[in-house]
Amino acid sequence: LSIHISPGPADFFQSRISGDGLIGEEIKKNQKIAKQVKLNLRDEFKNEITSLEGNTVKATLLTAKGKTTGLEILQGLDHAFKIPYSVTIPGNYILEVFVNETYIFGCPLTISFQRNAQEVLEEQLEKERLERERRETEQRLRQEAEERLRKAREEENYRKEQERQANLAKKQAGLEEKRKAEQAKKREKDEERKKLIAKRLKMQQETERRAEEALRKTEDELRRQWEKKFEAKKKFKRIGGGFVVPFERNPDDDRHPEKN
Known about the structure:
Number of strands: 12
Structural class: alpha+beta
Radius of gyration: 73 Å
Strand content: 15-25%
Number of helices: 2
Largest sheet: 5 strands, antiparallel
Distance between the termini: 219 Å
């Protein structure tokens, strides 16, 4: 006698999921990990269900990038179903399995696929190396920029100093030219003053000479007049008693007419 019992609708509480697809693992860069979840459907009386007919079963995987991907449910062995999926990006994934619009027991389930520790360490070391190189490059560029700025400042200061020296030399040259012009003008004035003094001295000397000459002429004229006066007198001299006797003149009387 064989009795066949047809199972009822799949029950979310009695159904189970299992397999390596429920466990995360380390994932390397550019690695693809294939996983598979085993699904056993049972009705509320724990009778196994080997067909999806009459039941609504759906599986989704929320990826690390926040994208929901529908998973395919395949017929497996031992009256079970299999739900395969693959992972290429590290992160936490959320597995959701619905039986007749209700989460199966144990869902939603978070499955963590972490980066390979060695790769993480190597990547961290590489990041540190790149960061060190970046800092060194920034420092070198900053030093080069500071050096260029220092040289630019030195060149600007040198240019300003040269300009200042040129302006100072130009100013000194202008002052020297002005001083020379003033000296030349002073010399001209001195020459003019000397000429004027010489002219005045010459005029004074001429005046003195003319005065002396006039005085000499006057003296000569007076002497001639005296000489004529005394020449006109008779060569006689009156003596007492009304007599007049010849008198021999003394030559010195001509030079001293006042004595006569």
